[in-house]
User: Which sequence fits this backbone?
């Protein structure tokens, strides 16, 4: 194995070119070509019929909703919608497709030649907009799920045999292929990640897919090649099934470093598919392509061409929701915040959360403060996304409200967040169960205050001499006695009143 | 005049998972040549301005509504398979292959 080089070092000699192929499972009720349900997690082979099992004599019929979803995706990605296109058979022998071919599209994709503007976070906290060209968006069907049995690793190598579940076979799948992305230099890994994130956000706002990467409803293959500046593009590798945003970034980074090492040593890059390993962030070669793939595509004779009426396409165009980029610009203006603050929200994946928190009644400043402060820290500590923390925008709005009312201070609010995230219930339930309300009853505060005054004669003397900063010691003692549940500002007021008497 | 080689026949046989004996390759190459020549006769009448026809019936846009229809009973399905385990089809060792997508 050749030595790896750092990304920065690699970039002094080579320009990376990346390309991404993303597969999105559509959220239709039924499969692409038959009426079987598409629900995730069903008992194996209970969502199958003659069509998706490829039984002789069965015939596919196209799901109208899948075509609609694909056209809407194409429109959202600024693509041209074909006036006429066909499905094609991709022939291969593999047990994940019982027909021994996959119905796909080949040289006549439904959507072509679009783009997506991607906001890429920069190391300095700012951002840069990169336009990623879209080569094509086409329809196909998903394959069955294989489980490899026997052998030590549960992997395909060394397995004794494999088991197949066809529930997933035939679920509508849309493949989105970018044009080669050039000239992004060291930003290439971040561009890859930001592109997949942006695509995910668009699919979600279109409502065409639940885009859960962890359930495989959005899957990504990353192509990477390197070449010295000004030279023709190098040979590319394709790293398959990179299935989280972080992995996309890591896989591209690894390939840049690995390929630079190979080229530095005078070697050449083998055109091959590679597998990404989540545990150490490396890629290893898959099947080497001794022979070029030969899928023998031909027009699918069992399906008629798709020729979307331009009026239908125009009608679908009107159903497009406000897309994430436009929505962000609008929110930034509404909230009156700087580009930098907006970038921070985007980079933290907090825009939608803050928006929902504001919708639930919170002030935008308070909403941003909690999501970007306490909650971002907690998410980072646990290695999860903000949205997966178990705290909802409604919870944040309620806690901000309790702080606003003076029922909680920031310190107590943090404990409430901790309780909510730990599944102890709603903010009000956590406040009640943990007894976290601020002591607002002056009688109780005065009792604690008098104890503190008695115990801190030095400080009292200093305050009487005009050294008001000495009040900190007494306020601290009161906070300690009330387990942090006193309102410090109120304690200070009471103290000065007391000593002024 | 087409000219199918023995290598091409061997390649096609491999793609179709046909176990053709080495000594039959020439025989099949000759036969395929004859077939291709016969089909090529079409191009004598079909000029460049006539598009290739994949679907002889002039129809398009035959769609179904996105609704569920009944599925098959799993036991009945698996009873048709050569082997099954755990509610799944059992297939022989796949070895070094990998999934296309």
Assistant:
């Amino acid at each position: 194995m050749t030595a790896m080089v750092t990304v920065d070092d690699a970039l002094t000699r080579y320009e990376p070119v990346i390309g991404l192929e993303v597969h999105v499972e559509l959220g239709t009720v039924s499969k692409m070509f038959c009426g079987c349900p598409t629900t995730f997690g069903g008992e194996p082979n209970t969502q199958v019929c003659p069509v998706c099992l490829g039984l002789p004599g069965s015939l596919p019929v196209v799901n109208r909703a899948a075509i609609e979803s694909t056209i809407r995706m194409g429109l959202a990605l600024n693509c041209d919608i074909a006036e006429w296109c066909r499905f094609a058979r991709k022939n291969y022998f593999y047990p994940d497709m019982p027909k021994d071919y996959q119905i796909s599209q080949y040289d006549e994709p439904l959507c072509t030649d679009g783009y997506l503007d991607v906001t890429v976070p920069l190391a300095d906290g700012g951002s840069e907009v990169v336009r990623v060209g879209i080569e094509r968006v086409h329809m196909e069907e998903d394959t069955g799920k294989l489980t490899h049995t026997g052998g030590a690793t549960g992997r395909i190598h060394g397995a004794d045999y494999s088991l197949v579940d066809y529930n997933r076979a035939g679920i509508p799948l849309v493949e989105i292929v970018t044009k080669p992305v050039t000239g992004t230099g060291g930003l290439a890994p971040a561009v890859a990640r930001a592109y997949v994130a942006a695509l995910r956000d668009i699919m979600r706002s279109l409502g065409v897919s639940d885009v859960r990467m962890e359930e495989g409803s959005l899957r990504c293959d990353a192509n990477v090649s390197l070449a010295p500046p000004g030279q023709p593009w190098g040979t590319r590798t394709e790293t398959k099934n990179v299935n989280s945003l972080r992995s996309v970034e890591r896989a591209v980074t690894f390939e840049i470093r690995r390929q630079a090492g190979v080229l530095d040593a005078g070697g050449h890059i083998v055109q091959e598919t590679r597998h990404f390993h989540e545990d150490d962030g490396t890629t290893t070669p898959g099947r080497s392509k001794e022979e070029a793939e030969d899928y023998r595509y031909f027009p699918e004779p069992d399906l008629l061409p798709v020729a979307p009426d331009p009026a239908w396409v125009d009608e679908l165009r009107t159903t497009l929701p406000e897309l994430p980029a436009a929505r962000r610009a609008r929110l930034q203006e509404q909230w009156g915040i700087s580009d930098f603050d907006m970038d921070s929200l985007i980079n933290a994946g907090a825009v939608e959360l803050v928006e929902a928190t504001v919708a639930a009644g919170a002030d935008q400043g308070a909403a941003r403060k909690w999501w970007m402060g306490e909650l971002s820290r907690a998410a980072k500590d646990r290695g999860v996304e903000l949205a997966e923390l178990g705290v909802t925008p409604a919870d944040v709005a309620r806690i901000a409200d309790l702080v606003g009312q003076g029922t909680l201070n920031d310190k107590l609010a943090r404990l409430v967040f901790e309780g909510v995230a730990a599944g102890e219930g709603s903010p009000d339930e956590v406040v009640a169960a943990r007894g976290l309300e601020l002591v607002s009853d002056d009688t109780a505060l005065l009792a604690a205050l008098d104890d503190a005054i008695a115990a801190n004669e030095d400080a009292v003397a200093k305050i009487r001499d005009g050294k008001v900063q000495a009040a900190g010691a007494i306020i601290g003692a009161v906070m300690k006695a009330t387990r942090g549940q006193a309102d410090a500002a109120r304690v200070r007021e009471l103290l000065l009143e007391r000593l002024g008497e | 005049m087409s000219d199918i080689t023995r290598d091409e026949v061997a390649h096609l046989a491999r793609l179709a998972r046909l176990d053709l004996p080495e000594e039959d390759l020439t025989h099949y190459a000759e036969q395929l040549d004859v077939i291709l020549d016969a089909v090529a006769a079409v191009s004598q009448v079909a000029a460049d301005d006539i598009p290739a026809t994949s679907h002889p019936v002039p129809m398009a846009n035959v769609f179904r509504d996105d609704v569920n229809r009944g599925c098959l009973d799993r036991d009945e399905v698996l009873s048709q398979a050569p082997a099954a385990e755990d509610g799944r089809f059992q297939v022989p060792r796949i070895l070094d292959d990998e999934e296309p997508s």
